[in-house]
Amino acid sequence: MHYYRLNHYLRKSSLLSDDQFGFTPQNSAEDALVSFCDIIKEGKRKNHVTFLISEDIKGAFDNAWGPGILHLLKSFKVPKNIFCLIRSFLQCRSADLTLGNVTKNRVLEKGCPQGSVMGPFLWNLTMVDLLCNISKFQNCHKIAFSDNVLLIVQCKHFQDVCTLSQSILNNICDWSELYKLKFNPLKTKVMKIYKKSTVDQRINVKLGDVIIEEVRNIKYLGIIVDNKMQWKEHISYVSSKSEKILLGLLRI
């Protein structure tokens, strides 16, 4: 009931992001991938240099910060009765751990309640603020599926894409500190879409103090995207996986 009332209010007020494809009605991973391909095609048509930056949030659902979510609800001017319901949902929680005859109780201050309808929706609210924050940057597209965020940065010149990408990453770091979340720099990857003029140029951007690894393919929503958009790595991956399943079935 909480979910339907809050969802109705936010959608009626156009406060949710169209860039979030996860846990949203009439959206799927396939829709996110189609949107991604359309953006890449448009960048190629304009002869732009394109970077893909795949972001990884550490323990996303477990670390969603209740006060941050409540602050967002206040900024959205959510009706008081709905706000109070959500506040009690987030704040009045504790967990017990029993080992032998000893039981320890701990008040839970972070995390979206798992297994609930409301939990994923409240996580999406946190992501709304991140996506709106990134929207301030021109020439940057973003696609989110739950806690998976893919940034697509496009400019005419290679150095301009590097500069813009770094500005966006700095902004994301500031946002994550505000909401007490952490992006994993070792799992964050950057890839440039193949363009003859940029083959020998190397990307040098950082997340915090860590240089992001440049790769030739990125796995996003189960699909391996290569820098030439030829899908050879993904086809090989699916073929190998299918072969292993078939061999397993033949042994039965």
UniProtKB/TrEMBL annotation:
Pfam families: RVT_1
InterPro entries the UniProt entry points to: DNA/RNA_pol_sf, RT_dom
SUPFAM superfamilies cross-referenced by the UniProt entry: DNA/RNA polymerases (SSF56672)
GO MF, any single term: RNA-directed DNA polymerase activity
Keyword hit for DNA repair: no
Every Reverse transcriptase domain range: 1-225
Keyword annotations from UniProtKB, A to Z: Nucleotidyltransferase, RNA-directed DNA polymerase, Transferase
Record's protein name: Probable RNA-directed DNA polymerase from transposon BS
Species of provenance: Trichonephila clavipes
Gene giving rise to this polypeptide: RTase
